[in-house]
Amino acid sequence: MKHMLNYGDGPKAIYEILKRQIIAGELEPGNELKIMPLAKEMDISIVPLREAIRMLAAEKLVELRPRRSPIIARLDVRDLVEMNQIRGALEPIILADAIPRHTDETLKECEKVLKRTTKVKDPWEMVELNKDFHLAILGPTRLKRSLEIVSDQYDGIARLTQFRVITHEEQLGKLHDEHAGIFEAAKRGDVDAAVSEMTHHIDQATTRAANELNSEDQSDDTSGEHAS
């Protein structure tokens, strides 16, 4: 897990490295982050490392514990469902407001992101493009506070879960097809169709992610039974 950081790199750089390791599964849920050994391994001081860990805790990727080492947060299906309930409630409303305000330029930006998803094989990049597409298609809305709330749901544990779902290769095509349906309806100015496509897309995302987490839980339980 050795990473070369330039002198003067602050907590943000350390945070980005640790976040990617967590999302990629290199740091597994339940594992402790022992501050002193980790600082030595990364060749950094403790102060920016602690700050980076606090930043990860704010995204619920790390769980802070009094007088004990922090741990990588465990994924909770209830958290995931709640996050997608927020998306499911707000994104269709935001999209309905955004569609009449799209211009040729904003639609071209959405299409640009969509085309990039057809060429991407890296799950990490696909997770980033997923967020980019949603924020682009919702971007022209006047409902900026709601948009900010939605944007927050694409970070932290949600991003980790998306990475694990997208890692399954067949999901890459499904994600693109669902985005394409939303885009085509938005491009036609068909609010009802776009909202219907978005609602279906979020429902499907919730189901896929919940299945992924439940299958991991069952795998963990089975491993525990075998170990005992």
Automatic annotation (TrEMBL):
One GO term in the molecular function aspect is: DNA-binding transcription factor activity
Region annotation (Disordered) ranges: 207-228
Task: Report keywords, A-Z.
Answer: DNA-binding, Transcription, Transcription regulation
Q: What is the lineage of its organism?
A: Bacteria, Pseudomonadati, Pseudomonadota, Alphaproteobacteria, Rhodobacterales
Lineage top rank: taxon: Bacteria
* Protein name, entry field: HTH-type transcriptional repressor CsiR
HTH gntR-type domain location = 8-75
